[in-house]
Amino acid sequence: MKSPTLSALFAIFLSVFVLCPAGSSQSDDARTFTSTDGKNLTANVVAVFGQTSVLSVQGREYAIPFSRLNESDQAYLKKWAGENANGATSLFDITLEAKMENKKKKEGPNTTVEEEKWVYEISVANKLPESFSGVRLECAVLVHHAHSGPNEEKQIFQSVNALDHSISQGKEPAQLKIGPVNIHKSKDSRGKRREDELIGIWVRLLQNDRIIAEKKTDAKELVEAKWPF
């Protein structure tokens, strides 16, 4: 007997939103959910955002509004949201791009100094079928300062900014600019160089003090770091 297709499985939930293929099977903590018209579906909870649940079925993630589920399942999802960290990684597209905005050079009698001003341009796009308001962004920029002592090589630049509009599915991404971050490079009369290094950035999106998405550049120091370094 042929297994039902995913589209057939989700015929019970009108207007569900497919997020991404994941390539994994159901785990032992799968739950049987019931739609408002009494039909059942077995799935794993991946995340809960506002009034939308993200459920995994046969290796695919689906965004299903609470309104499509019975009251018992809605209560379960609210309880799950309070006890678990969201595990979906494909709900927001976050892009990070470093750009040098300005560069100055100063010539002294013994030292030449270059000062660069860098910013990070951040774009956030929402893949969920509901908007998010009251979202704020936290970021930490990691810089190695050549002029600091051995125990002061890392500087954290943190900023909290409210996104200037809600993040709506299918709309233009929210755009933010973080910075400037000052990078100094010097060379003395003997040819000795000291150069700061911009390592990378770690960005987190929060709603009601709950992390709903995060991304960091792939520098080793950031991959292995714990917030806020």
Give a quick rundown of the structure:
The protein has 229 residues and is mainly β.
Report what the structure shows.
By secondary structure, the protein is mainly β. It is elongated and about 80 Å long. It has helices spanning 6-9, 71-83, 220-223; strands at residues 17-21, 31-34, 40-49, 52-57, 60-65, 92-107, 111-126, 135-144, 154-162, 174-188, 193-195, 197-207, 210-216. The protein contains 3 helices and 13 strands, in the order αβββββαββββββββα. It has a 5-stranded antiparallel beta sheet. A 4-stranded antiparallel beta sheet has the order 6-7-10-11, with no helix packed on it.
| Amino-to-carboxy terminus distance | 54 Å
Low-confidence stretches: 1-10
Strand segment count: 13
Largest sheet: 5 strands, antiparallel
